[in-house]
Specification:
alpha+beta; 4 strands; binds FE2/S2 (inorganic) cluster; 40% helix; Sufe protein. Chain: A
Length: 155
Amino acid sequence: MVSSGLDDLYQEVVMDHGSSPRNMCKLKNPDTTAHGFNPFCGDIVDVELQLAKTEEEKISNIGFYGKGCAISMASASMMTEAVMGVSVSQAKNIFADFHSMVTNKSIKIDSYQNLGDLEALSGVANYPTRIKCAMLSWHTLVAALKKDSATVKTE
Ligand code: FES
């Protein structure tokens, strides 16, 4: 039987994104890409970005693809929705808030603003091995923003 904690972890919004990931695609002409790898399970994710050269550089399009558990795919899917169209500096702020949320179980969910659906992953903080699942695509996003071609590992 699944505990109530795990029920929280696999709540409806996470299952929806995990089973029907948004923006799971290869982009035609990405400006930057990165490859992520979780050595714990062997799962991988690639993140591709198109960047708009406006006054403040923005993520004009994002796609991801790979293979992973429901948590990693849901996190990647929600990540693409959260950072699509935002500036690079905003994307880094969202990364910081999300990272803080999933690694610090003592912080209450009301401490976060603008994380939207991502708040559904707050239960991950109670499951250390799943933090790597939730963070895989996010570390890969940061590497893509840095134009770092080395494979990103979750440990
Ligand atoms: Fe591999 Fe979750 S078990 S990313």
